[in-house]
Amino acid sequence: MAAGLLLLVCAGAVLYSAKAQDLYNELPDSYKKGVDLSLEQLSSHAGVHHHFRFLRSLEKSDIESGFGVKYLYHHFYLKPTRCAKGTADSNPQRCPFRNDRPLMDCAVCYKTVNDQMEMDPKPYVHCIQKPRLTEDNGNFVIYGWKPVWTSDTWGLDTVRLCMQEDCNLVMYNQCDTPRWNTGTNGPSRNMCHFQLTDDGKLVLYREQKEIWSSTSSNGIKK
Q1: Could you tell me one molecular function GO term of this UniProt entry (predicted)?
Q2: Is residue 149 part of a domain?
Q3: What is the pLDDT at residue 145?
Q4: How many structural domains is the chain composed of?
Q5: Structure letter (DSSP) for residue 7
Q6: Same domain, 41 and 89
Q7: Which residue range(s) make up the domain with 13?
Q8: Residue 97 gets which letter from DSSP?
Q9: Does 60 share its domain with 145?
Q10: DSSP three-state, residue 86
């Protein structure tokens, strides 16, 4: 039974990876060029160690300027694979996606003439790593290029993270027992929110005042 379940999981992962490859293949050639450029620049970054592949588009737009000239914008996700950086093979079976690293959030803007990318003006490429908030082992982790902060709750039975009305950020187990929190509970009438910054810092606010930050605390285990 366990072997059968493992086979189903593996098959599902391959199908998911193959579907993403199909989404790339369905892109117009002019949009593929932007994705390829972002992958090329990403591969040149010293902090990147894995091969990435296109996952899905979030937004696409183009403006026609006449005489075959277009200005394209494409917002999309790239996902890391189990292959090393520099791998030329994009076969989803040989380079399957990995789920233990965050996505890359990319936006590109560039000019094409007759569907060929122009280098003047220089294409704009901006990719940031989306911080990942949780792991399957009960740990609450924020990733940059590598893990930058952890709640140090590895091995606990936590299953969900909740921002409560009293401004306390809490992790619960399946029995709704709190196992970790930020210790920021206060009057529930106050407006509370948290923000995950692009540089991987988690900050809690009550009204507009900062009340907790991952740079100075790992929270409270229970």
Answers
A1: signaling receptor binding
A2: yes
A3: 64
A4: 2
A5: H
A6: yes
A7: 2-129
A8: B
A9: no
A10: coil
Span 16-25, average pLDDT: 70
In a domain, 134, yes or no: no
Distance (Å, rounded) from C-alpha 203 to C-alpha 116?
Answer: 43
Distance CA 196, CA 208 (A): 15
Same domain, 150 and 80: no
pTM of the model: 0.62
* Burial call 4-33: b when 16+ CB within 10 Å, e when fewer: eeeeeeeeebeeebeebbeebeebeebbeb
Q: Which CATH number covers residue 17? A: 3.10.450.10
Residue type, 114: N
Q: What is the pLDDT of residues 147-157, one digit of tens each?
A: 788 898 888 88
> What pLDDT sits at residue 2?
35
| pLDDT value at residue 20 | 59
The reply to whether 136 falls in a domain is no
Rounded to an integer, what distance in angstroms lies between the CA atom of residue 62 and that of residue 60?
Answer: 7
- On the question of a cis peptide bond just before residue 121, with omega within 30 degrees of 0, the verdict is yes
Q: Is 147 found in the same domain as 119?
A: no
User: How far, in Å, are 21, 57, 112, 127, 209 from residue 195 at the CA level?
Assistant: 32, 24, 37, 19, 12
